[in-house]
Each structure stands twice: as C-alpha cells, then as structure tokens.
Amino acid sequence: xxxxxxxxxxxxxxxxxxxxxxxxxxxxxxxxxxxxxxxxxxxxxxxxxxxxxxxxxxxxxxxxxxxxxxxxxxxxxxxxxxxxxxxxxxxxxxxxxxxxxxxxxxxxxxxxxxxxxxxxxxxxxxxxxxxxxxxxxxxxxxxxxxxxxxxxxxxxxxxxxxxxxxxxxxxxxxxxxxxxxxxxxxxxxxxxxxxxxxxxxxxxxxxxxxxxxxxxxxxxxxxxxxxxxxxxxxxxxxxxxxxxxxxxxxxxxxxxxxxxxxxxxxxxxxxxxxxxxxxxxxxxxxxxxxxxxxxxxxxxxxxxxxxxxxxxxxxxxxxxxxxxxxxxxxxxxxxxxxxxxxxxxxxxxxxxxxxxxxxxxxxxxxxxxxxxxxxxxxxxxxxxxxxxxxxxxxxxxxxxxxxxxxxxxxxxxxxxxxxxxxxxxxxxxxxxxxxxxxxxxxxxxxxxxxxxxxxxxxxxxxxxxxxxxxxxxxxxxxxxxxxxxxxxxxxxxxxxxxxxxxxxxxxxxxxxxxxxxxxxxxxxxxxxxxxxxxxxxxxxxxxxxxxxxxxxxxxxxxxxxxxxxxxxxxxxxxxxxxxxxxxxxxxxxxxxxxxxxxxxxxxxxxxxxxxxxxxxxxxxxxxxxxxxxxxxxxxxxxxxxxxxxxxxxxxxxxxxxxxxxxxxxxxxxxxxxxxxxxxxxxxxxxxxxxxxxxxxxxxxxxxxxxxxxxxxxxxxxxxxxxxxxxxxxxxx
Amino acid sequence: xxxxxxxxxxxxxxxxxxxxxxxxxxxxxxxxxxxxxxxxxxxxxxxxxxxxxxxxxxxxxxxxxxxxxxxxxxxxxxxxxxxxxxxxxxxxxxxxxxxxxxxxxxxxxxxxxxxxxxxxxxxxxxxxxxxxxxxxxxxxxxxxxxxxxxxxxxxxxxxxxxxxxxxxxxxxxxx
Lengths: 732, 175
Description:
The structure holds two protein chains of two kinds.
Chain A: H1 2-39, H2 49-68, H3 75-79, E1 86-89, E2 93-103, H4 119-124, E3 147-148, H5 151-154, E4 160-161, E5 169-175, E6 179-187, E7 194-200, E8 205-212, E9 215-222, E10 229-230, H6 238-246, E11 258-261, E12 264-267, H7 270-280, H8 289-302, H9 307-340, H10 351-358, H11 371-374, H12 398-425, H13 438-444, E13 448-459, E14 462-472, E15 484-488, E16 498-501, E17 519-523, H14 524-528, E18 547-548, H15 550-554, H16 579-584, H17 589-605, E19 616-622, E20 626-628, E21 633-635, E22 644-654, E23 668-674, E24 680-686, E25 692-698, E26 708-712, E27 721-731
Parallel strand pairs in A: 16-18
Antiparallel strand pairs in A: 1-2, 1-13, 2-5, 2-6, 3-4, 6-7, 7-8, 8-9, 9-19, 10-11, 11-12, 13-14, 15-16, 15-17, 19-27, 20-27, 21-26, 22-25, 22-27, 23-24, 23-26
Helix pairs in contact in A: 1-2, 6-9, 7-9, 8-9, 9-17
Chain B: H1 2-52, E1 54-56, H2 57-68, E2 74-83, E3 104-108, H3 109-116, E4 123-125, E5 131-138, H4 143-151, E6 163-169
Antiparallel strand pairs in B: 1-4, 2-3, 2-5, 5-6
Helix pairs in contact in B: 1-2, 1-4
C-alpha cells in the first residue's frame, strides 16, 4: 500500500519536473524565434511588426510545448486551455497573451468573415423590411458589424444584433493590446503644478508627456547623471543638438564635434570620414552621418577588401553617434532635473490599481499572495524620483528603484486581471497567479523576456501549476552594457584577431603592448545573428570575421567588473553599481573612452518604437481676439521668455479694404515685433481676408520682461485691420 | 527433540517474517523517499542554474542540504559544456544556412566548484547555448543495500541505490 503511494508520489514529482523542463525549453524556443525575427526585421520600416513577431513567437511556444509533451497532432487547441497567460516584456512595454471573451460576429460566407453589413446582407438578415431577424430597436445601418444574438440569455427570437452587449460570447486566445510601462504623476502645490505621464523603459530612456506650469511638453530622451557630460551647446534642445551633430536632411553634420564625458574628452574627425569615402571611391560629397552609414553598408558588401577604410568609417561614425547621444541626453536630463526635480514617489497617480486592490473580492484568484506581493504602495513616500546627486543608471538609485516598482505593479496588475478572468471561465481548475521570485523579477525587468504560465495539467497525484521565464540578451530592441563586444580598430573584421568584452583581462595580457588603440563596439546580437543574406540575394551580405575571446566570451566566466571584479577596480572594497563608475575604474584611457562610446553609440543606433515625433513644449498665451489697425498690440501673458524658443503668432486680416488680397493686388504688410529690450523682428503677412496666417518669431535671445508689442511697420492701406487669434510659445 | 527443533525453526522463521522482512521493506521505502528528494533537488538545481545562466553558491548549497537531509552521502558531478562561438572562418561558407559545427569544451566539477566556493566570486557563470548537467549518486551503503546483500549476492558496494541525473541547455547568459 505504502509502496504504491510512494511510487505515485515519486512519479508525480518527476512528472512535474519534466513538465518544468519542457515548459522552459519551449519558452526558450519561443525566445529564439523572437530574437531571429527581430534581428532580420527593419523595425523602422514595417508598422506594427512587433505584434506579428510576438504572435509568431507564441505559435512557436505552443507548438514546441505540444511536441515536447508528445501531443503534436492536436497541438495548439489542446494546450491552450492550460496556458492562462504568456507575458512578453519588451523594451518599453509588454504584451500579455491570454484568453479573452469576445462577442461573436455573424458570418454568412467566407468572403464576409469580417462581419460587415453590406446592403444586400442587410436585406438578407431581414433588416430592411419583412420579418426582422435583427434585434428591434437597434438602428442597424449598412456598414455596422452584425453579431449573433444571444437567445439563451437575452430571450427573444432574433438571430442577429448590432448591440455588442446582447451578442453571444466566445473565448478567443488573443494577444492583448500593448501596455506601456507608464505612470501618471500629479503634483498640485507650489512651486509648480505638474501633471505628466512618464513612459519608462527597461533602461534609462524616457518619454514624458504632460503639463508643467501650464506648458504642455512632449519630451523624449535618455536620463543620465547631471554633469556627467560637458562641452555641449546648452542653448539647443535635445533634438536640435542631435541634428546639429549628425546632420539632418539638408543640414551639414558638425565638422569635428567634441564632448567631455566623465572627464574623458571624446572627439570625432570629419576628415576621417570624407577621406575614407574618397578612398572607397564614393566621393566626399556627403553631409550627414546617415549618408555615411549608407556608404559604409555599401562598402561592406561591395568593397570588403578595402578594410582600412571600412574600419575608419565604422569607428568614426560610432564616435559621431556617441557624441550626439551624450549631447542630447545631457540636455534632456537637465530639463528633467529642472522641471521634474520636485516629483516624489507619492505623486504617482495610480487610483485604478489602488481601488482594485482595496476591493477584497479581487484577491480570490491570487495564490496565497498577500497585498504586498501584488502591489507596491508609494503612499506617503516622499523620496524624490529624479535626484540630481545620483546616477539614474545606478541600479540602486531612486529613479531605478521607482522605475522597477512601477513596472512590476503594472505587470502584476494586468497579469492578475488576465488570470483571474480566465479562472472565472474555467471551472475544471482554480487558476491562480503564482508568486514570481524577486531574482526572477530582476531578470524580467532588465531584459526582454518571455514568462509562460502553465496550469491545470494533470500529473499523477497533483495538478501542475508553474511558470518559466527566459530572458534575452541578443535582440534589436535594447542595449545591455555587458553584451557589447569590442575589438581594436585595426583588427576589426580582419579574420585573425579576437573580440572581447570591455573588462576582459586579455586587454592587459601583454604589458609591453600596453597601448590599446581606438576600439570599435558592436552588440552580441550582431555576431549571433549575422545578417548574412537578404531575401533577394543568397550571397553573403555582411559577416563579423573576428573571433570570440576564449576568456571573456566563450567561457563567460572571468573576473568581470560588471559582476564582482577584484583585478581591475581601483578600490576593491567598493561595490560599483553604476556603469560609469565601473568603466572609469578601468586602467587604460582608451578602454575607458571606448566604454563610454560603445554604450552611447549602440543606444543611439537603437530604433525606438515609442519615440515622440517632436521634443518640445508649448503654451497658448493669448486665446482671445485682439484687433488692431494701425495701433500697437501688446501681447499679454508672454512674461519671462527665458525658456521660450519661439513665438507662433496666428493672425487674421479683417477690415473692409475691398482690394486687399484681391487677385493682382496682393499686398504685404510688415509687422514689427519687439520686446523693447533689443529683441526685434520684422515679419510679413499677406493681406488676404479671413484666412489664418502664422508668423514664427525666434525669441531665444529675448528677455520679454516688459512685454511683447507688435505694430505695423508701414501704414495699413484703407481700413484694413488684423486680429491676433492666438500666440503660442514654443519652449525648449 | 523433534519438537524443539521445530520450535527453533519456527522461532527463526517468525523472526524473519516478523522483523527482517518489514525492516527490509521499510528500508527500501526510505530509499524511495530519498530517491524522490534527490530527483527533485537535482532537477531544480539544473533547471534553475540554466535559466539564470549561472551556478551560484546559494543554489549549490540548497542542493547539498537537500541531499544531506536524506541521511546518505552523495557524489555530486557537474559538467558544463561550453559552446565554442568560433566556428571557423565564416567567410568560407557559401551556403547561408551553414555556419559550421558546434563544438563544445567541457568544464567539470572541480573547476566549477573552484569558482563557486571562491569567496570573492561565489558564482560560476555560463552563457546561452552551453549545456549543463548534474549527476548525483549515493556513495554510502544504505540500510536496504545492507539487507539486500544478505539475501542477494549480486549486490555489492559499487552499485548505487539512490541516484539522479538532469541536464539541459543554458537559456540565458549569466551576469
């Protein structure tokens, strides 16, 4: 008797173990599929490509799991009921794949699967006249989506309805809409009224949208330590600074830009780029860095034998990008510290989550976890989020701690919702959200990850309930500092030398050869998923020909300063947690510079799916009409112009001068705008009646303390007058 | 006389039936439970290590503690097969699907232990694509083995009674 019970228990546990292993392997397969897809996709060129990649990855997960479990023929459909959720954490948000209740759309033929009502359908369904099969009282019109009517629950004899609520419900397994790692912050009191939404990412990249002191800002950039960088043009905003360095469209890239990062000066040489392009035979008639990059790609395909020029281009373009990254990040960070320095943890506005957890009824579907396991409360916590004294990239900084808790709260909340909803639908097993361990959270929120949950599967005496997590370090979406590889410029792609991590002891192996030259950086992903072919040509397109170092990359087990290094730290007793501290403790100046350039170049090259199109702030100063003919208009409410970049004044010509603006009699009126303290501008408007015209005045050097006045420079013809409709101040 | 002999035989049989057989049965159940614990511990250890990409001293101690709790002593053997990223000069490959063979370099128990038991390091890091395996066998003679040796001559000290093995590919680069 005992023997049988023990035997069963042994079987149960070994079955559970084998399921764990199978689930982990299937999740790994899914991640592998995702990595390959991102590596071979131009994220910038295909809209919503991410979603299809996730769906593909999810198919891999289910098929691989089915095969592992030995049920391949029935595969997906058989498995789905046991998968309450699959979580995909990406760079700036996450997807949850979970079953969702949807209204059943009426379908007549295959061709009409979208369920749209066309005029002939409408009559077929009895909508126009005759006995109506469509629910009475609904104003169904052509083009509406027609659902199947839920006769059992709602009663009545209709077949179809256009009211979603009365439709039959079915459970579909869908990828739910993308949720960003975002939080809203509201601060009412002095000194500033703040109401902003901050979108976090897996690193220090931020999107900030909202109102600060009445100015509506949209800002995007990397948050770095204050005063980490010096030697940039502080009068520009982050977009302009970047454009100036890299060149944009018709602008010329800055010739020899330079910057100082953490005491190390980094400079780039335009001559190097134009020289290399000349040697390659492309001519030096280029203006921007992106053009140079295009030529570099071309050279790698066509002129791989001219290695020195390729090395020069690769290295110099990297420097340009790094300088652009540091300049724009420094400007963005200064803006954040100046404008949002007062924000504290408790300013976060997460009423929805708070109310949800307050309602005890919602705990039922969570396994043994208390409230604190599900939800981190920021209530009463007055720690400032953006602390000037700290490095936000330091894992122990306020910013980082807060960011992690915000992301965890959001994921737990939505995951719990998904699993709770599923639990209500399935009565054969009580699904619940397992408690994810802290060390696993660390992995989930520092890398792109997949967490797959499997529950309800019968295994002997027990019912299976577990999850497996796989995180990725080789993808196009984000940059992990430890996964950037370096090789000396002269040795890049020569097919003979090794590439290393920045902190590899091999750099110091030969003390006589202590001079390390310029380094070229690339991500681990580039080696793992070399883009060796295109869809159009089978030939090798580009390949990394250096070898992986056997000390740092192949064995991945060495004294690294990204981990716990004792060889290369200045102060072994100090535990470095910030990237810049670690790099600064390296012994060779070129290695330090390379470390600074490498991470910046890779971040600058990463395509951001969530980047905001403009990075600026604006405020409507005057929204009431002010009419003037020949006299002066005072633009009220302009006030301090210190942070204002330009004024956009919208005008309309009124009055009854009949000839004004008529064909052949187009007349120009010049307006004089000044702040009375030396700031002055002349702008023309065309005398066309009743048409909005906007003039833009650059006021970046103006003071504006005495108010802005506007008056006609010449005499206005006839009785023409103009109305100031609005004045919009654009902030830096 | 004949009665006394029968009595002695009866007592002898009774001892075997009433004490020895139950003891053998119980000792074998003990080994079954040990087997269960060892199986779980080894699978957990390997799966956890390959999921996070490192063998940590904490995980290793957890394994050792779980094994010790069974009351036997064990030999723990670990092997990490390091995937060689250099598959030859890739320029030579014409077919886009072929990137060379995957070669592995093996690292064994003592090298792994050197890393994880080093107080400054405390961890052995692995990279994605490596293989990690662990084999555990008891090296003492369990009670059931002793009893069995009474009955069966084939049972010797070299065979193990409780043993488990698990392996898998490392899914993340540890750092």
